[in-house]
Structures are given as C-alpha cells and as structure tokens.
Amino acid sequence: MWRCLLLSTLLLWRQGFCSVYVEQPPFLTGVPGATTPLQCTLIKTSHYHMFWYRQRAGRELEALFYSAGVGETSFTKEPMEAKKNGSDWTLTWKSLSHSDSAVYYCACSDAQ
Fold first, then answer.
1. Which tens digit of pLDDT belongs to each residue from 72-88?
2. The CATH number of the domain where 34 resides is what?
3. Who has greater pLDDT, 70 or 56?
4. Into how many domains does the chain fold?
5. How far apart are alpha carbons 26 and 14 in whole angstroms?
6. Pick the residue with more confidence: 7 or 94?
7. Residues of the domain holding 72
8. Distance CA 10, CA 35 (A)
9. CA of 43: how far to CAs of 7, 65, 90, in Å?
10. Are 43 and 87 in contact (CB under 8 A)?
C-alpha cells in the first residue's frame, strides 16, 4: 500500500490578456487520511476572479471552486474546501484519499 500519495502535477499559469501570474508548486504529496492544503498565489494583483479546477487521468476538466473576492462557491460535494485570503487561494482536502490523485489548476480571470 502507498505510504505517500502524489496529489498533482501543477502548472504555472500566465493569463494572456493581463499581466498577472498565478504561482503553484510543481507537485504535492500527501498521506491518505491527512488534511492537506495546496496554495497558489496571485502575483501583481488580488482583484481577479479565482478558480480551482481538477483533471483526473482520462477525464475532462471539472470546476471545483470559484471566488470573486468575497466568499467562495463550491461546485463539488467532496470533502475539500477553498479559501481566498488576499492574493492567496488555498485548496484543502479534509481527508486525502487515493481518488484525489489528479492535476489541479488554479486560475484567475478579470471576467466571469
């Protein structure tokens, strides 16, 4: 049985129409059952709509969370939460499992 779980291979996202960068770690590992946070940071501004997406192997991209700056909207019923605090946008698993293995994308937009 795995002792460590590779959560994601994440990308550095650069928005094409604005001079904003979203920084994320290249990967994250965690132990099944653990509470595990994944943070991305918005560079140069904090006034954008923020999104968390997930793509599991062989599956389509799915929206997980959205924030327009005040509060967060969840599109999933899985045991995870997202919190935006200034330019930080953190996705936290309440109980990590092997089914959470995927590529996770943090994205920003100046439009909905």
1. 888 888 889 998 887 78
2. 2.60.40.10
3. 56
4. 1
5. 15
6. 94
7. 5-109
8. 19
9. 24, 20, 14
10. yes
